[in-house]
Amino acid sequence: MHLLMLIGTFFWASNIIAGKVVLRSMPPMALAQARVTGAALVFLTLFALWRGRPPLRMSIRDLGYLALTALFGITLNQIFFIGGIGRTSAAHAGLIVALGPVMVLILSSAMRLEALTLLKSAGAAISLGGVAVLSTGKPSPGSDATISGDVIMLLGTAVFAYYTILLKKVANRYDAVTLNAIIFVLGATMMLPVSARTLFAVNWTALPADAWWCIAFIVTCGSVLAYLIYAFALTELTASRVAAFNYLQPVIAAGLGLWLLAEGITGRALAGGALILLGVYLAEREGKVQEA
After folding, report:
1. DSSP string, 40-96
2. Given 30, 84, 100, 117, which is the most exposed site by the fewest CB atoms within 10 A?
3. d(CA 13, CA 26)
4. Each residue's pLDDT tens digit in the chain (292 positions)?
């Protein structure tokens, strides 16, 4: 199971690199729509072929709730995520995505779902301070990191954190394939009015081979397999053990960016990254102690 989570974490980190490659050939909104639509079609196929799946029972109220969940977890998250990676470096993107647990903590506290203790508050403050350090320095040679890109990525992490909170309320009502099929279909449908013009303006036949390979990777590995692995891991491992893999994602993303995209890493980026990961560790530490 730990090996599966490592593979899933590698897929998510590699998504950043694959996305940056595809964005050389098409606009962000077109890629965002292609990703969620492709994943939706794969999940629908799995749903249709699964003969022994549990029967689907859903009220209008349930459908409305899942639509809200899809809006944040798929539509808005992918608009911000794809838009952000086109304006920042792989290392910055990986570190900001790793802020997820802290963003969940902040939103849960604001919604009065979780108490904000001194240690958790310190962790959140240190992590956000790390983002400030990360984003305000001069980019390294070969890096396309910008403050606007980091802010967009931060917005993507925030909406995904809200999606995580919403998902917790319905995660036990549906199996992973059914839940992901519904959410991806709804998310892709809601994104279409925003992306349609850009999507149909792309000359798909002129895309280079590396863009097509990267799109295929983003859909199959970075979306379908990664989401299924994550859902399965949560049923076999403790939440804190699964969350621990967040620390590996920025390391993998930065390493791949350095290797495949020739992105440099500055001392400020290392300092900001260390603060972000320290803050995430402190924010999660109490939960780990209680769970143990």
Report:
1. HHHHHHHHHH-TTPPPP---HHHHHHHHHHHIIIIIIHHHHHHHHHTSS-HHHHHHH
2. 117
3. 21
4. 667 888 888 998 999 999 999 999 999 999 999 999 999 999 999 998 988 777 788 888 999 999 999 999 999 999 999 999 988 888 888 888 888 888 888 888 888 887 778 888 888 888 888 888 877 766 665 567 788 889 999 999 999 889 988 888 887 788 888 889 999 999 999 999 999 999 989 999 999 999 999 999 999 999 999 888 877 776 666 555 566 666 778 888 888 888 888 787 778 778 888 888 888 888 777 655 444 3
Distance CA 105, CA 164 (A): 11
61: which 2 tokens?
């109220």
With tokens 């954190």, the residue in question is: 161
H-assigned helices in the chain: 2-22, 28-49, 60-70, 77-85, 90-97, 100-110, 118-136, 147-168, 176-201, 209-219, 226-236, 239-243, 248-260, 267-291
CA 177 to each of CA 188, 208, 276: distance values in angstroms, whole numbers, following the listed order? 16, 32, 33
C-alpha–C-alpha distance, residues 258 and 260, integer Å? 6
